[in-house]
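Inputs:
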Amino acid sequence: MIAFDNVAYSYGGGELLSDISLRLTPGSFHFLTGPSGAGKSTFLKLCYGELLPSAGRISLFDREVRSLSRDDIALTRRRIGMVQQDCQFLDHLPLAANVALPLTVAGKTSTPQDLTDLLGWVGLGQLADAKPPALSGGERQRAALARAIIIGPDVVLADEPTGNLDWEMSLRLLTLLVELNRMGKTVLIATHDLNLIRQAKAQVAARVLRISKRRVQLAGADL
Amino acid sequence: MSLMSLIVPDRRADRQADRVVPPSGHTAWLTSFTAGAMAFLAVFALALSLAAGRLADRWSDALERTATVRLSAPEDQMQLQTDAVLAILSTTPGIATARAMTDAEQRALLEPWFGPDLPIDALPLPRLIELTETGSGYDGEGLRQRLAAEAPGAVLDDHTRWRRPLAVAAGRLRLLGLLSIGLIGTATAAMITLAASAALAANAQVVRVLRQVGARDAYIARAFVRRFTLRALTGAAAGTLVGMIGVALLPSTDTAGGFLTGLGFQGLSWLYPLVLPPLMAVVAFIATRAAAFRKLRELT
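Outputs:
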């Protein structure tokens, strides 16, 4: 689905990531860890075509990312649900419309019941008409997750999805992501929360990738 | 994305695209005002251009088919020479009528310059003979040669030296009007481009969110292009209406009226300004679309 071959990414004259080769296979569950500034967010941005590698080759659904036009990238992103750490919404639209946005831009529709079910699944059923500025951090994260999956993507990427959440809310979000994985979605979560990773490994066969010294390595079982 | 698809109001996809952009800010009234003001000015430029065209035609028509023979002769031979010239003219093919102007008519011609008390009888003024030509026209050079041989004091003036500069001046005035319309269109495009770019920059977060969830550039651009096109259309319609009312209220042409009182639309030319609002909408469509795609490449 997503394949890196000897990928490097340079920024501001220095190399942030180098010589990365890996594959995210369908239905896999990965965590991406590493210290702040190690390049986790950059790695995720490379995964959905927001950034292009300075060296090497990235394939998204068997297409080399450099060969994709802007329209191709837009269409590819409909297959990749993204949950950002600082979830951004269209503040003038109610939550339900924000969650349905990927369908709207794709010219598709969802039934009101489907939308209600999805909002209920992430625990936001009562807030369908609320505007995003009125939501708490945890509600925004769950709304972002709902938005990321409403169009039925093959891959879900999450960048520090529990960064602003308390432990209880973090576990709730993790449970949702695990459920998605059980539905066959490929999940990649960037986080530095080792407790979250340990909790996940108890529920799902998750692999842990660690960014260290600009490279991505498969972490050991000590986590 | 066609212009029609943007201005037909009941297209569901366009309405949805329109909704994703927040309600307008200052760029909304700026665009409408600009389009309105420019359409207002364009109405007057159009009126100027049309009036100049009519003026050029009128001057050409008035001078083209007439000529004057100016006859200088001693007073005791003036009538004899006049009769001789009239006889030549009456036998010249292509001349419809010829007549000598009376003293009263000549005095009336000179009155604007010399006043009503001019002692015309005491002045050695030439006799003016006015002629009009037929549709096929006459041989000017041949007539000049006959006059030189049979009435040496007679000089043919076919008004060319008057007609040409007047026609040139009127033509340039018409060109100036058209150039003004072109400049107004260009300025409108520039201002709407700036407004559209500002709107896109102000909505950078919206653009980023839309790109992140898989919106194509055409989808995002459509929301802005549709909005700016409709604003320009509305503003231009209002500006055109006010401009047409302004032109209609100008004094009408009368016998004492000069060029300015003829500045207006006549007959079917009242329909010409109605082209301006859709034209402004097309300008806004092209300008906003170009600005939107350029800005989108910058933002994401």
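Remarks. Chain B touches chain A through 22 residues (CB under 8 Å). The longest strand of chain B covers residues 127-133.
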